[in-house]
Design brief:
Largest sheet of chain B: 5 strands, mixed
Number of helices of chain B: 6
Order of helices and strands of chain C: EHHHHH
Helix content of chain B: 25-40%
Order of helices and strands of chain B: HHHHEEEEEEEEEEHH
Oligomer: heterotrimer
Chains: A mainly alpha, B alpha+beta, C mainly alpha
Structural class of chain C: mainly alpha
Strand order of the largest sheet of chain B: 3-2-1-5-8
Helix content of chain C: over 70%
Strand content of chain B: 15-25%
Radius of gyration of chain B: 27 Å
Largest sheet of chain C: none
Number of strands of chain C: 1
Structural class of chain B: alpha+beta
Distance between the termini of chain C: 69 Å
Number of helices of chain C: 5
Strand content of chain C: under 5%
Number of strands of chain B: 10
Largest interface: A-B, 126 and 107 residues
Chain lengths: ~625, ~280, ~220
């Protein structure tokens, strides 16, 4: 068949190694490239969190390896506070941008959105390739921030670029956290170690990342609206596609705002403008304008940065988790052998979450000095996001109810997602209240909340997606036994890490402290701190099992058929792995909704979307009873 | 596998709930007028959160326990695409509960932040800087002396740039600890010299950013005497974790006596008082 | 599994030719195939609108920063408008007109006229950038630079950001021009039309954006 239709391919399958695997415009290769990037980035991020836990639980301990790697950041092998804070910053930045934004959307979305809607590629394949390479450059720049601050020699090279480029602080990057609040982030090295060249590279990396994400979002939206195959109406799309689409819309509208903020911040730092830096500052013994290292600034607004940042930052958390929700819905239905409960409600809930996500950024800023009246509006809107989130949870339980659940690794992680989404999301009801924020803000309950929900739940969504789609991507199944060991340790482990952090927050333990030794009121928490660290060490170590499973399965895994899970959507309609144009020159036609499991009277307990031999409902759309 | 997962989910849920119910690690006792109301709102919230969390996890555990695949191909799941009635019911119920909770959650906030500073409040100017707190007291005349960033001289210990030529500044005192009266409204005028800081006293249930370029006025009333730790809760640089001070809540007699002291004795008396009061940490 | 799969050979053209925006594909009635030119054409236009949404957000962010910054400080010194900006505005408006003339020629399959008007549009675009540079120089001569005060910071930033986007438009015009010269088409293709449409949507947007920025910079406050 492929010979007869060869002429119609817009881009025939490339033959050379470079065009096939490196500068490929095939969305599947690009998807895998994004996943490899995320797997590399998450390793860096995890090692950083491990180092942070070591420092918090055993302050002052001598770690010889640190001394070798970062003689200035850990003199004598003992981590200094700025080194710890640079770990905080880089862990957050790498995880949020290069893991939670790349893997769910750039990785799985890129690979499966075109296949699931029956398209042969993305709408703009070249742009797709460009978005990956731009993102990769962003990652390289953020890694450069580690080197420029960590290595004195490289730091010196950069210092030649100008006064704002002084590096070599002995940290692994800037120390202002992933939120980069001005003016700490805007003032340069006089505000602290790592705030020179490292901070410049941080801003540049984020700006580059914004551009890459925008190109990706543009492609996702156009592809989904324009390239659905015959019969693939919007309401017949898998929920994964709805999630990727909403995520792309969020990215399209929020990343430009961060880009704008980043440009202003960079100008404040490099050119000496005063967008975010107010007048009359006195930093490190210098008055603004009294010294070439600290030019005169007047009238800037530090809160303006926070508005720009969080206008992006809040949609960003949904960018991280919506694809996980989509994958979870998809996988729950497949392995419960039941249609998704309340498909339409699920679609509306995704949209409601996305839409409301643009109007709640102020809940990060209740006590920032912004108008206390706007806090009231932000707070009530924030609590209302709980409604579509609860609707999703109810519908997931409804999907399981009366099912015939098959406990594959993918299903276990999807179930874990539901459990963790509830556990992490529900504390949003506490944190979203302006009154309670007076006690909770910037204590450990905040990282507890967002790590569980946007961090770990999203990652569980990605684990589920990988175990589920791995056979399609690589033609081999991942090892289920190893996968289950990985699941049990990780599932229990993340509860042990993050639930205790909630009560640390109640006691009042502040975030982003290099040590807890200075305050009497924190001493009682030491056993919990230790417990969390030990849990983290075990859980992080268990991820080696996962890495092993991935690598081993790529080469040695059991060969997979086209549809090993007996699933219904289009990606299971084509060989594993799919051919270059996804459907070997023959586009599928869709007759049913995406989750027709357990149809009474059908020969099998699943009806594929392309199967027109079975009557489902009245017209094949998802009917409601 | 389903039963194992159900049991694990239930155990994790039970342990999580227990961690909260045991109150082994909990808020320090509230020492502010708005504290008890905030604690009540927290209790209402945590009960709703706890019930929802537990119910969802029990439901999830029950589903994976009960609806396991039997391995019999003719035994199929329930064929349903959902129920509009159920969707309506749970959407409306959660909307009512969550949004009412959100509205209720504004009352303490409104009482503190949407109200003007009560007249006759005891006023202190707080000037934060990288890794140090400066508290500026107006002295007997009740008028703050003029300050100017140009006069700031950390080396010369003029941390806030107090203009010594201003007559109002003659009786002003600048110290590293905060002293406030008991049962009397306190107004803090918050400023920062360099980056954003945040004033945080856990038992006070109170937190506010100090933003350079702004003067933010906040107020509260402390209701228990004693010495409490005061921390910075907004990342401000490498020694953020050490940016510590104390808040001393004094009964009227002791405070009035302190206030009446001239500038040079103020600091010494304050040191005595700080030593006298034991630290309250719970 | 293969027995259950219903497929459709790609050579079958089943689209009824609808060009409704964003395309009536996949609604269960009208099938749609990516190699059909209509689909491509829609895709260019749709992709352009999506891209413009994100560019609009960037300038919304910068404008709200402008408004907040203008309201929050007492260090704002309003610039006097360099006169040459009136000229640049007129040039850019004219370029929109010439681009429409180009499109009219394309519709009439007059490729020489099309190429000529595209070239004129390009030259007008370049002159616009030139006059913007003159405006910068006029300010610099007054001693007003990027860091002088918040209004000048925003002036330089917004004009530069607009210019960068306009250069993108110029590159696209160059692409259209070369494409016309190289391809030597005799009849209007759907793809050619779509490319011209997409570029003109972008160019007109840049035109409107400049008017907006101009009003924001010199009428606000």
């Amino acid at each position: 068949m492929s010979e007869t239709h060869e002429g119609v391919h817009r881009h025939p399958a490339p033959t050379g190694f470079i065009r096939k695997y490196i500068f490929s415009i095939d969305h599947k290769v690009i998807g895998i490239q994004y996943l490899i990037l995320a797997l590399a980035a998450v390793l860096v991020g995890m090692i950083m969190s491990l180092l942070m836990r070591l420092n918090l639980s055993w302050p002052g301990t001598h770690w010889p390896i640190l001394e070798t790697l970062f003689p200035n950041g850990a003199p004598g092998g003992v981590m200094n506070p700025e080194f710890y804070l640079s770990l905080v910053t880089m862990h957050g930045t790498i995880m949020v941008f290069f893991v939670l934004t790349t893997a769910p959307q750039g990785g799985f979305g890129n690979y499966f959105l075109p296949i699931q809607i029956g398209a042969e590629d993305m709408a703009f394949p070249l742009l797709n390739m460009l978005s990956f390479w731009v993102t990769l450059v962003g990652f390289i720049v953020i890694l450069l921030a580690i080197v420029v601050e960590g290595n004195a020699r490289v730091g010196e090279w950069f210092a030649a670029l100008g006064p704002s480029w002084a590096g070599g602080s002995g940290t692994v990057g800037p120390i202002g956290g992933w939120t980069g609040y001005a003016p700490l982030s805007a003032l340069g090295k006089i505000a602290g170690p790592g705030q020179g060249a490292g901070m410049n590279l941080w801003v540049i990396s984020i700006a580059i990342f914004c551009v890459g994400s925008l190109l990706g979002a543009l492609n996702f939206i156009t592809t989904l609206l324009n390239m659905r195959t015959k019969g693939m109406s919007l309401m017949r799309m898998p929920l994964t596609c709805w999630a990727w689409f909403t995520t792309a819309v969020l990215a399209l509208l929020s990343f430009p705002v961060l880009l704008g903020g980043g440009i202003l911040l960079l100008l404040d730092r490099i050119a000496g403008t005063s967008f975010f830096i107010p007048g009359g500052l006195y930093v490190s013994g210098l008055l603004s304008g009294s010294n070439p290292n600290f030019p005169l600034h007047t009238g800037g607004s530090p809160i303006l940065w926070q508005h720009l940042f969080w206008f992006f930052g809040h949609p960003e958390v949904y960018i991280a988790i919506l694809p996980g929700m989509g994958a979870t819905s998809h996988i729950l239905a497949t392995f419960a052998r039941k249609p998704v409960f309340g498909y339409r409600a699920m679609v509306f809930a995704i949209f409601a979450i996305g839409l409301l996500g643009f109007f709640v950024w102020g809940h990060h800023m209740f006590i920032s000095g912004m108008s206390p009246y706007s806090a009231v509006a932000f707070s009530v809107l924030t609590l209302s996001i709980g409604v579509p989130s609860a609707v999703k949870t109810f519908n997931w339980l409804g999907t399981l109810w009366g099912g015939r659940i098959r406990f594959t690794c993918a299903m276990l992680f999807a179930l874990g997602f539901v459990s963790l989404f509830v556990a992490g999301g529900i504390s949003g009801l506490i944190l979203g209240q302006s009154s309670l924020d007076l006690a909770m803000h910037d204590t450990y309950i905040v990282p507890a909340h967002f790590h569980l929900v946007m961090g770990v739940a999203s990652i569980f969504g990605m684990f589920a997606a990988l175990y589920f789609w791995f056979p399609k991507m690589f033609g081999r199944l991942m090892n289920e036994s190893i996968g289950k060991v990985h699941f049990w340790i990780t599932f229990v482990g993340v509860y042990c890490i993050f639930v205790p952090m909630h009560v640390m927050g109640l006691v009042g333990m502040p975030r982003r402290y290099a040590q807890f030794t200075e305050y009497e009121f924190l001493h009682g928490l030491h056993p919990l701190v230790l417990f969390v660290s030990i849990s983290a060490i075990i859980t992080i170590s268990a991820q080696l099992i996962f890495y092993f499973n991935v690598v081993w399965s790529v080469f040695k895994g059991e060969k997979a058929s086209a549809n090993p899970w007996e699933a219904t959507t289009l990606e299971w309609n084509t060989p594993s792995p799919p051919p270059h144009d996804n459907f070997a020159g023959v586009l599928p036609v869709v007759y049913h909704g995406p989750y027709e499991f357990a149809v009474p009277g059908a020969p099998k307990d699943f009806v594929m979307q392309t199967d027109n031999s079975v009557e489902v409902g009245t017209n094949g759309h998802n009917g409601h009873h | 596998m389903g039963r194992a997962l159900a049991v694990i989910i239930w155990i994790l849920t039970a342990l999580s709930v227990l961690l909260f119910v045991s109150k082994k690690w909990w808020f320090p006792t509230a020492i502010s007028e708005h504290g008890p109301a905030l604690d009540r709102q927290f209790m209402i919230t945590i009960v709703i959160v706890g019930i929802s969390f537990t119910a969802a996890q029990i439901g999830l555990g029950y589903a994976v326990w009960k609806f396991r695949d039997t391995g019999n191909p003719s035994d199929r799941g329930l064929y349903t695409h959902g129920s509009n009635k159920l969707e309506m019911i749970w959407t409306v119920i959660t909307a009512v509960i969550f949004i009412s909770l959100g509205v209720m959650g504004q009352s303490v906030w409104a009482s503190l932040r949407l109200n003007d500073v009560p007249p006759g409040s005891y006023s202190v100017e707080v000037v934060a800087q990288q890794f140090q707190w400066n508290f500026h007291y107006p002295g007997k005349d009740g008028v703050f002396g003029h300050t100017d960033p140009k006069l700031i001289d950390d080396g010369g210990l003029n941390f806030i740039g107090l203009d010594s030529s201003d007559p109002n500044a003659k009786d002003d005192a600048v110290t590293a600890s905060l002293v406030i009266p008991l049962n009397h409204p306190v107004e803090l005028k918050l400023r920062s010299k360099d980056v954003i800081h945040n004033i945080w006293v856990p038992p006070l249930r109170f937190k506010q950013d100090l933003v350079p370029g702004m003067e933010i006025k906040v107020h509260f009333t402390a209701t228990k005497p004693g010495k409490y730790e005061l921390a910075c809760a907004e990342l401000c640089g490498q020694l953020h974790f050490k940016m510590k001070s104390f808040m001393l809540v004094l009964p009227d007699n002791e405070l009035n006596e302190l206030k009446a002291l001239p500038q040079e004795q103020f600091q010494a008396r304050m040191t005595e008082l700080l030593a006298k009061y034991p630290l309250v940490t719970n | 599994m293969a027995t259950m799969v219903t497929t459709r050979p790609v050579t079958t053209k089943s689209n009824t030719g609808g060009t409704k925006f964003p395309g009536p594909n996949g609604n269960g009635k009208n099938g749609h195939h990516r190699f059909e030119p209509d689909s491509n054409a829609n895709r260019y236009r749709l992709g352009m609108w999506v891209a413009l949404a994100s560019i609009a957000m960037l300038f919304t962010a910068l404008s709200s920063a402008y408004i907040v910054r203008a309201g929050s400080s007492n260090d704002w010194v309003s610039l006097t408008m360099p006169r040459v900006l009136l000229l640049s505005t007129a040039i850019l408006l004219a370029s929109s007109v010439t681009l429409e003339l180009a499109r009219r020629n394309l519709k009439a399959a007059s490729f020489n006229g099309y190429a000529r008007w595209i070239l004129i549009t390009m030259l007008l675009g370049l002159s616009f950038l030139g006059t913007q540079l003159l405006a910068w120089r006029a300010l610099a001569r007054q001693g007003v630079y990027l860091v002088s005060n918040p209004h000048s910071s925003f002036f330089y930033l917004l004009t530069a950001a607009h210019a960068v986007h306009l250069i993108g438009g110029l590159l696209a015009l160059i692409f259209l021009w070369i494409r016309t010269l190289v391809k030597r088409e005799v009849k209007v293709t759907v793809t050619g039309q779509a490319a011209a449409d997409a570029v003109s949507i972008y160019w007109h947007f840049m035109d409107g954006l400049w008017i907006y920025l101009f009003l924001l910079l010199f009428l606000w406050r």
